[in-house]
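We store sequence with structure; for instance:
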Amino acid sequence: MAERYLKEVTPDKKPNTQRDDKFYAKTLTKFFGKFYLNEITPDLITQYVLKRKRK
């Protein structure tokens, strides 16, 4: 999903926003990349948020 978003949506944005989109996609993909979209649950998102808060 992130790859598709970066390919189809990001190019129409301002350069700074494009940079941000790429950063966030990379960050989220590190955690969620091994999951299919239908496997990402609220509990998994909570795990991600807690992990980020600990850093």
About this structure: Residues 15-32 form the longest helix (18 residues). The chain has three helices and no strands. The two ends are 26 Å apart (CA to CA).
